[in-house]
């Protein structure tokens, strides 16, 4: 008599063959060795040994949910992108929230940017809007990205994250001032994914069938959020202060996942409004900052936003590994009507994200259910490790005169853009590293300013090199003198040295 419910299905091997005994290995007598011919045992152990895949180098700690995006405005006049062609049009989505630096299994209450990545399953392929909860980033050029992540990750000797290392790196990167100011506010420790806003961070391009185009930025605003600011041009919802986060961490490593999944299971579906800001390319040089610089926001008073849709999450995935862990979201996954801007950080991400997924999941990862397109996939990319769909016929090339083959279509060509310039390796002209950080600081309440200083002191105050502490403090002083003065006292550096350095910076 087998073990298990009488109503349960027959246990089988991966080949489909029935299993007679899943409790005892095949042995040579009562005290003899286990036999290699116990193919069920060998298969079971071998499968277990290979259950895990390489961890994401960033965004390893993640949570996924399924839902739907509904357009609330017809944008067919400015883009041919399928999700925006008619008011009320619905597109199924998968969303993955995550921390950035810390590993899988780490507490969700640690200070870290949060990933906010959305996969739209459209009639013309998958579009991934891969953003964060903060609207800006640490650096503006992807060539710095590996070094930045190395500095933020644990020390290769001790395997401990060390503020000495990452502030040493960022003391050479004044453009990080805005991101650090947002990250060390309570935005750096969200109270809930449901109450967390999101941003595409970069500028993209909306294009029409006639290849008329304009720049566009995307922002998600949580309907169930508690705004921290009256001015929503400064992205933000309530987050934990340091002592509150420590209390949460002592009781629940999974507070954000638990909150999200509990709400969905109870039918309390979270909703986000999608807002866009659009900019005509002729206006690109009309500002004192570069709109293609992802360390900057587009201020609402200069470039107004408008609501164009709603995102609702209404289903917890059936299997964490097959959905959240195998999800492959990449900025390079675009559809007709959406193209990348010249943002230097975005240009690097177009390659890097898809490349990490080819390493982590294999070349055929796009056929995994969570990544599979709802539209027909007709490609001559073939074979390789992992599952690929059944194929038939002799024509595995293009062009061909055979009806077996596929045809391309000039209607889906990339748009043409005029270019003017000389190859160079230089920073952008309008850096303006500090002004928006100062604006953000001054829009905080007194309590939030206190929390920001306390949080920065907790990490920057650990840095042993006084020169690093002084340089970092001078960045914040340049953003706002009150900000820098308070921080100089907190981390014990000479205010006169801070002021002298700050005076040497341009902004």
UniProtKB/TrEMBL annotation:
Any one GO molecular function term: heme binding
Catalyzed reaction equations: 2 H2O2 = O2 + 2 H2O
Compositionally biased tracts (Polar residues): 391-401
GO CC field: cytoplasm
UniProtKB keywords: Heme, Hydrogen peroxide, Iron, Metal-binding, Oxidoreductase, Peroxidase
Cofactor field: heme
EC number: 1.11.1.6
Coiled-coil regions listed in the entry: none
Active site: 59, 132
SUPFAM superfamilies: Heme-dependent catalase-like
CDD domains membership: catalase_clade_1
Pfam family membership, one: Catalase
Domain Catalase core: residue ranges: 12-406
Residues that coordinate or bind heme: 353
Ranges for region Disordered: 381-409
GO BP annotation list: hydrogen peroxide catabolic process; response to hydrogen peroxide
Protein task: Decomposes hydrogen peroxide into water and oxygen; serves to protect cells from the toxic effects of hydrogen peroxide.
Protein family per UniProt: Belongs to the catalase family.
Name of the protein in question: Catalase
